[in-house]
Specification:
DUF1877 family protein
Length: about 140
């Protein structure tokens, strides 16, 4: 799997959707990652952090897709306000525990994610969510 994943901060859905073609610009605070399914990840993170089951998260239409490039190349989606708040409020030990649970969920599906890498990803996205909150903005993800 070779995927480019950029979580980024934007003031609203309209501004975030502008990232569809080329990704978030230099003016956007962002975090570059890769080689995992970010939509599946945020669904699992939301379930693990909020106690909602995965099916409820999906049935609620989360995460919200803002746009898909013609031909199915790139897409942009919004992180729910519940997940963003849960990430921003989580203490490091909680994030470590959730990262371990996420890595275990992925292992059950045949995908290997090292627990330390899972913790680093979640901690970095949580820091971005905290920054977005301080700026009165939201967290989005661009995938190519």
């Amino acid at each position: 799997m070779s995927i480019i994943v950029k979580f980024f901060v934007a003031p609203d859905d309209t501004a975030a959707a502008l990232a569809l073609r080329d990704g978030p610009g230099e003016a956007c605070e962002s975090l570059s990652l890769g080689n995992f399914d970010p939509m599946g990840a945020v669904i699992e993170w939301q379930s693990l952090l909020t106690g909602r089951n995965v099916e409820d998260v999906v049935e609620a239409g989360e995460p919200r897709v803002l746009g898909v490039e013609e031909g199915g190349g790139c897409f942009v989606f919004a992180i729910s306000s519940d997940l963003s708040a849960a990430l921003a409020d989580a203490e490091p030990p909680t994030l470590r525990d959730v990262a371990g649970s996420w890595a275990q969920l992925r292992a059950e599906e045949g995908e290997t994610i090292d627990v330390e890498i899972a913790d680093a990803i979640m901690s970095d996205v949580a820091a971005l969510a905290g920054s977005a909150r301080r700026q009165g903005q939201n967290v989005y993800c661009w995938v190519a």
